[in-house]
UniProtKB/TrEMBL annotation:
This is Glycosyl transferase family 4. It holds the Pfam family Glycos_transf_4. It comes from Crinalium epipsammum PCC 9333. One of its GO terms (molecular function) is phosphotransferase activity, for other substituted phosphate groups. Keywords: Cell membrane, Magnesium, Membrane, Metal-binding, Transferase, Transmembrane, Transmembrane helix. Mg(2+) binds at residues 172, 233. One of its GO terms (cellular component) is plasma membrane. It is a multi-pass membrane protein. CDD domains: GT_WecA_like. It is found in: Cell membrane. Its cofactor is Mg(2+).
């Protein structure tokens, strides 16, 4: 079997072109840039006091630098810029979609970073997220409802806003334990990447997802327990927004609510976690957005006796299974699903091994 036949068996759109090479290059570049940039960001963050203090939501017992989102963002932007120079995006629609996602993501990185360091009112953050959602809708990225009613356009806009804002906050709420949000974002981005790579019309999503997956993996190398740095609201908002936007890129058409199931399965763990947190907090009369607490899924696993590492891996595994089901429902071939799953597991295993080896060496050095 030659390379063309192998790529064709994986379902890669236009395997004879160089687009798939650009995707691989984008992934590797984002991975390396983020991985190498984080130590500098961490050092500077500690120097100027950009750190999360121990609180009711997080599990850290000492100040932890919270500027990791800047490194994630830098990795994505650097990779996409260089990839575009090497293989220019000549299709105006694709370029517009990429720029729209990056513009909305940039807005949320800025708002998230300011909130990380100084605090912003929940209403202001929500309005910014709605504005970023409208930016996607204005560019044609929308969940298009076709129920045959006169209010379908209005419902489509509302559902898209709810989807984008909901996933953005869901990923942020998952960022309460080392390695959790980064790992889930990486798995989701890789799965969505595998699906979008089958369609030339989703070239924008494919390129952006490659950068996001690589950047999330590079960040995870420093964030798996014990963490050196966290992504903060800036990183979580950015990852959540990009995943929400790329998951519906290309006008997701819905004729029944069941058509949304595959899309929801890609982000099932954040959706379930956020839903149960919202319901529980509302039942006791608390504001779900502004009330921190240890009532998330990972807190329950910790309460059952699992370590932070084991709790993260368990939720990663659940995410991988739900993404596998989602890929199957999207009509992906068995060999493509197998290749995607093996790739995710190998890359995560390598990253965790590297992190644990670094921790072991550091501990051994201190003991001496």
């Amino acid at each position: 079997m030659n390379l063309y036949s192998f790529l064709n068996s994986l379902g890669i759109a236009n395997p004879t072109g160089t687009g798939w090479l650009a995707v691989i290059f984008t992934f590797i570049l984002a991975w390396v840039v983020t991985y190498r940039f984080i130590p500098q960001v961490r050092t500077f963050a500690l120097r100027v006091g950009w750190a999360d203090q121990p609180n009711a939501r997080r599990l850290n017992r000492e100040p932890l630098p919270n500027a990791g989102g800047l490194a994630i963002y830098a990795g994505v932007i650097a990779a996409l810029i260089l990839a575009t120079f090497l293989r220019p995006i000549v299709i105006e629609a694709v370029l517009a979609q990429v720029l729209t996602i990056l513009l909305g993501g940039s807005m949320l990185v800025l708002v998230g970073f300011i909130d990380d360091q100084y605090g912003l009112p929940p209403l202001f953050r929500l309005l910014t997220q709605i504005l970023a959602s409208l930016l996607l809708i204005g560019s044609g990225t929308i969940i298009q409802l076709n129920f045959g009613t006169p209010i379908d356009p209005i419902l489509s806009v509302l559902l898209t806003i709810i989807w984008v804002v909901g996933i953005t906050n869901a990923v942020n709420l998952m960022d309460g334990m080392d390695g959790l949000a980064g790992g889930i974002s990486f798995i989701t981005a890789m799965s969505l990447l595998a699906v979008s790579a089958q369609f030339e019309a989703r070239a924008a999503a494919t390129l952006v997802l490659a950068a996001v997956a690589g950047s999330a993996l590079g960040f995870l190398r420093h964030n798996f327990h014990p963490s050196h740095i966290i992504m903060g609201d800036a990183g979580a908002y950015f990852l959540g927004y990009v995943l929400a936007g790329t998951s519906i890129l290309g006008n997701l058409k819905v004729t029944t609510l069941f058509a949304l199931i595959p899309t929801v399965l890609f982000v099932l763990v954040p959706v379930l976690d956020t839903t149960q947190v919202f319901v529980r907090r509302l039942m006791v009369g608390k504001n779900p957005l502004s009330t921190p607490g240890k009532d998330h899924l990972h807190h329950r696993l910790l309460a059952w006796g699992f370590s932070q590492r084991h709790a993260a891996i368990i939720l990663w595994a659940i995410t991988l299974v739900s993404n596998w089901v989602a890929m199957r429902m999207q009509g992906m071939s068995g060999i493509m699903m197998l290749a995607t799953t093996i790739g995710i597991v190998l890359l995560l295993s390598f990253t965790v091994w590297r992190r644990l080896r670094a921790v072991f060496r550091a501990t051994k050095g201190i003991a001496r």
